Amino acid sequence: MKCHALIGLLLAGCAGHSGSDAAAIRDALTPVRVAAINVPLLFSVSTRANLGATLVPVAQNGPVRTWRTADAVQISTAEGIVVATRGLGDDLMSADASALLRALPAGGGQYLRHTSRLDGNFGTIFEAWSCQLRTLGPDVVQTPLAQVSVIRFEETCTGGDAIFVNLYGRAPDGTIWTSRQWIGPDLGYLDLALIRP
């Protein structure tokens, strides 16, 4: 019961994308608080608005895990790669992460990615991206509970007149601990940090 109350307090104090300051939420994720939580926890920051949120998993469908904030914003990930969002406005409806997930353990590669997003008028825009993944090198990620060794990757994708660059911090076991992932032209990037796997 104590764990559920603490999760509720963290989520209530860190409600996503409704005006929560990212630095204040990050400061609330102390080692003592995180150690008391017995469920996976994800921290998300909208780089465009500097709004933050903590998310907990609410569903698992095969490799896709859906995370949710206290105010019902959802981010779905496949092994740490964002494949959909809900509740953010011009949401990422879907993203095919399969080629990227094959390129990460290989250390890089070139591939196509396909995404779909809302256009603001209840229509769907389908996009194809030519992407290249390259290894940047080793790094260490500091979580509230531990230091984790990761390999940094940079993914550059182009399509039409658009370009975006995603960053990933991946541990040897395949866990993506940190990332900066492009959601769309209106939402920009989300910085994601896995607080508790």
From TrEMBL:
Organism for this UniProt entry: Yoonia sediminilitoris
Keywords in alphabetical order: Lipoprotein, Signal
First and last residue of the signal peptide: 1-23
Domain of life, per lineage: Bacteria
InterPro entries referenced in this protein's UniProt entry, alphabetically: GfcB, YmcC_sf
UniProt name for this protein: Group 4 capsule polysaccharide lipoprotein GfcB/YjbF
